């Protein structure tokens, strides 16, 4: 019995930790949103989550080389919008352009990389919630 209780406590702590991390992430994401100038292209912070994805050119987003610059490239934050009714379904939109990656201040470049990672962290929670809701009709058959 205590092993089941221990597993429940561990699971509760893990879920609580994720929610705490998520709240902190949103707070920092809002701050960086303005710091790197995304607010000039996207008026309301919440609107960034309407994009299918946000990508970065000019620096790596791979975990093993996070933030490493790609020499000769331009540092740019790109959003991908999606319109299922349009002839061209997806479209790239520049949210911020910073010039040649070699000339961008390292602190700014790191903030931009952090913004993308924090955006993706929150977007993954939203995706999880979306699919959890989609599974609702199937739960009725299980009960």
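Sequence proposed for the structure above (143 residues):
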């Amino acid at each position: 019995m205590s092993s089941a209780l221990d597993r429940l406590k561990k699971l509760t702590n893990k879920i609580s930790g994720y929610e705490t991390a998520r709240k902190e992430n949103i707070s920092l994401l809002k701050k960086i949103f303005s710091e790197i100038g995304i607010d000039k292209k996207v008026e309301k912070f919440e609107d960034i989550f309407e994009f299918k994805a946000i990508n970065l050119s000019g620096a790596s987003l791979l975990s093993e080389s996070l933030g490493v610059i790609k020499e000769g490239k331009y540092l740019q934050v790109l959003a991908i919008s999606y319109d299922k009714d349009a002839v061209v379904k997806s479209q790239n939109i520049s949210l911020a352009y910073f010039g040649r990656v070699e000339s961008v201040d390292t602190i700014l470049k790191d903030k931009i990389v952090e913004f993308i990672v924090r955006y993706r962290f929150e977007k993954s929670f939203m995706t999880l919630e979306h699919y959890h809701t989609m599974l609702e009709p199937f739960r009725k058959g299980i009960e």
